[in-house]
Amino acid sequence: MNILTTLTNTKYETEKYFDLSEEDLAKTYGEGKWTVKQILVHLADADSVLLDRIKRVISEPKQVIWAFDQDLWNENLDYKNFPLEISKAVYLANRQMVIHLAEKYYETLGPKEFIHSETGLRTLKDEFDKVVWHNQGHLDQIKLSLESK
């Protein structure tokens, strides 16, 4: 499956979870793990961060990109009470932009390099691929959460 198909498929699969009942949004896949709602808010924020990285790497040479602490974002931005409709709109808009940029630059600028503050040397292609595997990993957690209880 190519990057555009996978980005689109994970977008549509994720989108439906934003409309779950409050009961389902409160489910978790394990003790001390994030709820479905927290995962969805995180996906919107993470796609925002990854989109920003992608745009920086495309636009400005020799980027050094800083990591972000997802647990601090969850805590300090109060993901449990964050308005889900805002996260849904942000997620969908950012994902559409990622798809557009992947269509235009995944192959042509894919080898373009940058430095990540924790993982070191990476490429633009790596960052597009990260959008996919990151989203898929959280979709797996959401499915586990909904299967339990």
From TrEMBL:
Transmembrane stretches, start-end: none
InterPro entries the record matches: DinB-like, DinB/YfiT-like
One Gene Ontology molecular-function label: hydrolase activity
Keyword entries, A-Z: Hydrolase
Record keyword Hydrolase present: yes
Span of the signal peptide: none
Keyword Lyase: no
Residue ranges occupied by any DinB-like domain in the UniProt entry: 12-142
Matching Pfam families: DinB_2
Top-rank lineage group of the source organism: Bacteria
Record-given protein name: Metal-dependent hydrolase
Source organism per UniProt: Lacihabitans soyangensis
